[in-house]
Q: What sequence folds into this?
């Protein structure tokens, strides 16, 4: 294969008009360039320059080689420019998994800073069971998993759970349900229709403990895996739901639900799970910083 360093020296001599000028441009000695040109002539089996007095002129073959060399190094310059500007052209792909028990509104608030604060980012979101998402994370198919709990002790993965913060819980219901209640919160929940998250959620166990502590016996009318489905039933006046306090006003504005009361004894935890101990992905860094600020200001 042709030595492209030799070819580059030839190209510079042809462009600059002399070995001395090319040597100065390339910051090498004239002797070095002369030696490289001789090696190129030997490889090609012909002379590319001929001396005319004290000047160098291209031979007929030299003109042909110069044409190819110009195309080669022009293309090389274009390649270098494209590579240098690759980050400006190519979107930053951010692959995130959201555990299905995390409320959609919470997930939105946690993830949106990645799109708001980073130019040219393309977010790919997947929702699913925590074990399924952690398996994808371990295979580097995800950059981050948003969860309501740290990595389960029975899951074998070299990952790290970064706490995003905590918040309390609020009880909400439609006006038609509220009209049927009597007494003050939380005792007005006694005997009331309650919509609960499924048994696998951490909030569910805390909620039942809180009921027991306060001697409250609600009437459970539904249990759901999907927080969006709970909202739909609450909006239809089927019962009372529990939401993380930071999205209480948002849920009220969207669905017209009324807040019965709130407590900090039922705690919602949120984690960003990654395979890195120290967060380095730009989007992940933005999310963790913004999430802590948002949850702290909402508490």
A:
């Amino acid at each position: 294969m042709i030595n492209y360093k030799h070819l580059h020296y030839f190209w510079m001599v042809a462009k600059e008009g002399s070995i001395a000028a090319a040597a100065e441009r390339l910051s090498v000695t004239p002797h070095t360039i002369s030696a490289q040109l001789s090696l190129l002539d030997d490889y090609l089996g012909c002379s590319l320059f001929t001396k005319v007095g004290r000047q160098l002129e291209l031979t007929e073959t030299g003109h042909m080689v110069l044409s190819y060399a110009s195309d080669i190094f022009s293309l090389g310059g274009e390649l270098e420019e494209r590579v240098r500007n690759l980050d400006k052209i190519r979107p930053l792909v951010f692959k995130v998994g959201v555990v299905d028990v995390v409320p959609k509104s919470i997930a939105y608030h946690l993830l949106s800073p990645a799109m708001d604060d980073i130019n040219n980012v393309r977010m790919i979101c997947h929702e699913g069971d925590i074990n399924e998402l952690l398996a994808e994370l371990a295979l580097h198919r995800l950059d981050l998993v948003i969860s309501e709990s740290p990595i389960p002790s029975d899951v074998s993965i070299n990952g790290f759970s970064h706490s995003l913060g905590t918040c309390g819980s609020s009880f909400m219901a439609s006006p038609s349900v509220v009209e049927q209640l009597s007494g003050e919160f939380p005792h007005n929940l006694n005997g009331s229709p309650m919509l609960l998250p499924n048994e696998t959620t951490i909030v569910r166990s805390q909620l039942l403990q809180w009921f027991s502590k306060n001697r409250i016996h609600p009437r459970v009318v539904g249990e759901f895996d999907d927080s969006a489905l709970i909202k739909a039933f609450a909006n239809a006046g089927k019962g009372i739901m529990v939401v993380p306090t930071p999205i209480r006003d948002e849920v009220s504005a969207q669905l017209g639900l009324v807040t019965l009361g709130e407590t900090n004894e039922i705690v919602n935890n949120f984690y960003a799970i990654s395979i890195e101990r120290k967060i380095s992905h730009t989007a992940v860094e933005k999310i963790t910083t913004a999430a802590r600020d948002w949850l702290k200001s909402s508490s």
